[in-house]
């Protein structure tokens, strides 16, 4: 039997797909890259935004029409967030919930034989040290915890991922060590909120970072998204851990809005002053830190003044990476009961902030033109050449290098999203 897996969404979901594939391979079920060769298709869904929901919904319907003789299984967040819609568009599809990945082989075998099987519900099963597909990538993803402590009004992902479940540091370090020994040169520590790690188990993110970063070998560690409210009580120790030479000088710290009023209505659990204090401490202790932020444009209660505060905040903190999202109602989210702002207002604000975003990120990147950077080459470019990451995790285009190598380059040009370089 041959299975094709198509995955949408975040780094965490990609790791889920690797686990599904690993479980299948362990049970002597083949994974194929060509959908036409497959007997069973797994669509690993993301549901965080409406455009992604529309994309995966269309894909499931399209696959049923195009491949009527193939069996289709849906996995990922849609299974837990919107089973009603999934039942409507795919009544003959089997399901694998995000917490039931260890049952992937059973679901595939039963579905192949003509049964409709639906494994859903929450579980405390660890996702560390389990079988994973070795796809030859130099980047190894480790899920350090699942779920969150938040109650954000706009979020539906928490309904799929459930309450916080942190995995033991010893297990995470063991998987990282094995991955490095097998050739990985970048370890990505990922979660819905890495800053929440250990709040349920008594362990600490700062200790985890230190233990992974102190492993032997030539590699880098990237720490994933941190919720500002959960970093507040451990800022100093996390900064000390991230100063270690093998940790990228990079922090993903979503802000969502520059207005305290809107943050409160979003139930984010922190203030702008607290956020600025965190950013200030990181920039003081790690001057070359790359700051990545998330911003939601047009939350239902966002006024023109609230929006202006967001613009002013971005101009003040000057992030190197800005992820913009237009607000849209999500299944089960509290804010979905509120009236959305007028479409023309949303369009105007989104366009303006997109222009501000490009200007800020390009200006920040252009400050690096002429500098010498240490770069880890992690993947091949889609248009030729190679893509590396500076010590501050900024993408760099490099030519005539080997994958997995550390090289020194001179930055020759910059755009809003990446740097260009010449090898020294």
Task: Describe it.
The protein has 424 residues and is an alpha/beta fold. It has 3 domains: 2-119, Methylthiotransferase, N-terminal domain (Rossmann fold), CATH 3.40.50.12160; 139-366, pyruvate-formate lyase- activating enzyme; 372-423, Beta Barrel (OB fold (Dihydrolipoamide Acetyltransferase, E2P)). The protein is built from 14 helices and 19 strands. The chain has a 6-stranded parallel β-sheet, with helices on both faces. Strands 15-16-17-19-18 form a 5-stranded mixed β-barrel. A 3-stranded parallel β-sheet has the order 7-10-11, with helices on both faces. A hairpin with a 4-residue loop joins β18 (406-414) and β19 (419-423). The longest helix is centred in the C-terminal third of the chain and has 24 residues, at 343-366. The protein is globular, with a radius of gyration of 22 Å. The termini are far apart. The mean pLDDT is 96.
Keywords:
alpha/beta, Rossmann fold, pyruvate-formate lyase- activating enzyme, OB fold (Dihydrolipoamide Acetyltransferase, E2P), five-stranded mixed beta barrel, 14 helices
Which helices and strands, and how do they pair?
Blueprint: E1 2-7, H1 11-26, E2 30-31, E3 40-45, H2 50-66, E4 71-76, H3 77-81, H4 83-89, E5 94-96, H5 104-112, E6 118-119, E7 139-143, E8 145-146, H6 157-161, E9 165-166, H7 169-181, E10 186-190, H8 205-213, E11 220-223, H9 228-231, H10 235-242, E12 250-252, H11 260-266, H12 272-285, E13 290-297, H13 304-317, E14 321-326, H14 343-366, E15 372-380, E16 386-390, E17 395-398, E18 406-414, E19 419-423
Helix pairs in contact: 7-8, 8-10, 10-12, 13-14
């Amino acid at each position: 039997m041959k299975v094709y897996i198509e995955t949408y969404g975040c780094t965490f979901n990609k790791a889920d797909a690797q686990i599904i594939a690993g479980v299948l391979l362990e049970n002597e079920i083949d994974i194929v890259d060509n959908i036409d060769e497959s007997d069973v298709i797994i669509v690993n869904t993301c549901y965080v935004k409406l455009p992604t929901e529309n994309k995966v919904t269309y894909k499931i319907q399209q696959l049923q029409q195009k491949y009527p003789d193939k069996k289709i299984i849906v996995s990922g967040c849609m299974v837990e967030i919107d089973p009603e819609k999934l039942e409507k568009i795919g009544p003959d599809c089997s399901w694998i919930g995000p917490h039931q990945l260890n049952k992937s082989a059973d679901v595939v075998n039963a579905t192949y034989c003509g049964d409709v099987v639906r494994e859903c519900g929450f579980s405390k099963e660890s996702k560390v040290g389990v079988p994973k597909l070795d796809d030859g990538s130099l980047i190894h993803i480790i899920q350090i915890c699942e779920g969150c402590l938040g109650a954000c009004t706009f979020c539906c992902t928490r309904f799929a991922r459930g309450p916080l479940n942190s995995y033991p540091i010893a297990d995470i370090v063991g998987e990282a060590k094995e991955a490095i020994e097998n050739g990985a040169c970048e370890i990505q520590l990922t979660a819905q909120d890495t800053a929440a790690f250990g709040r349920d188990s008594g362990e600490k993110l700062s200790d985890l970072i230190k233990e992974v970063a102190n492993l032997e070998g030539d590699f880098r560690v990237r720490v994933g998204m941190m919720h500002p409210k959960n970093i507040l009580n451990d800022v100093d120790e996390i900064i000390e851990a991230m100063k270690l030479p093998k940790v990228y000088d990079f922090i993903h710290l979503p802000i969502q809005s520059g207005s305290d009023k809107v943050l409160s209505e979003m139930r984010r659990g922190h203030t702008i002053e607290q956020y600025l204090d965190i950013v200030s401490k990181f920039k003081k202790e790690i001057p070359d830190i790359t700051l990545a932020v998330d911003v939601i444009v047009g939350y239902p209660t966002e006024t023109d003044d609230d929006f202006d505060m967001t613009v002013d905040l971005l101009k003040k903190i000057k992030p190197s990476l800005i992820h913009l999202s237009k607000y849209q109602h999500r299944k089960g989210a509290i804010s979905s009961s509120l009236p959305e702002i007028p479409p023309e207002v949303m369009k105007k604000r989104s366009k303006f902030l997109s222009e501000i975003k490009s200007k800020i990120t390009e200006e920040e990147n252009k400050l690096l033109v002429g500098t010498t950077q240490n770069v880890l080459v992690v993947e091949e470019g889609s248009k030729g050449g190679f893509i590396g990451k500076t010590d501050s995790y900024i993408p760099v285009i490099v030519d005539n290098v080997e994958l997995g190598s550390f090289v020194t380059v001179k930055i020759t040009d910059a755009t809003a999203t990446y740097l260009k370089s010449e090898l020294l």
